[in-house]
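Reviewer 2 asked us to include a model.

Predict the structure of this chain.
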Amino acid sequence: MTTPIALTIAGSDSSGGAGIQADLKTFAALGVFGASVITALTAQNTQSVSGIHQVPAAFVTAQIDAVFSDLAVGAVKIGMVAQVENIDAIVAGLKRWSPKHVVLDPVMVATSGDRLLAAEAVEALRTKLIPLAAVITPNLPEAAALLDEPVAASEAAIENQGKRLLALGCAAVLIKGGHGQGAESTDYLIGPDGTIALAAPRVATKNTHGTGCSLSSAIAAGLARGESMEAAVRNAKAWVSAAIASADRFSVGHGHGPIHHFHRFY
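Predicted model (structure tokens):
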């Protein structure tokens, strides 16, 4: 029996709700073995990010090579990469090891509102990493930032931005509607063959820390298990929606608390 394995390349969240901690919890909750490459250490909690300590690019490379030389990685999720040097190291590693699926979550701003990505790193993300991705998963503000445009306010504008992001070289784009308004939170999966709208009831909770990290990881978990892109995205959306709906079972921190990754188990 082969064990599905997914790798997260991302930053660490000291409060455990987002970053690699959320990614590993997601992989475990979905029956996938998780490995990690840490790009940065953050000092953060549910209220703010108070510090970021970058991991040197050479050590990012060492982690990537250690994992791929031993583990049969089925899918890679990439989260916070704040430095151009680290982006270059990841790009070189992906080209060296050629994983089948790369899910890129262009993390630019934390749930607390703290900016996580320098301007020059945005350009490197746009031109070097996006072309290697099977799917990118920006939220509405991130999609706008990648295109240097205002945030899309209509379905037509969202689809238009998705097509322009697709033109940057990735195979698919999932624009997340969690920052939108209305009774439903609708995500849009945009590919060369058209757009699929995925709606879920909007949950009234402030406990949404790590939602984006967890969704992209859930997609990677599905791909590692052999699901199609559409199935992986649909299943990930359903799982994250249930994790958000269960978030208020927790009482963690004084700000945006975490979602409940293990809602199926306790």
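Residues 5-249 form a domain with the UDP-N-acetylmuramoyl-L-alanine:D-glutamate ligase fold (CATH 3.40.1190.20). The chain has one domain: 5-249. We have added this to the supplementary material.
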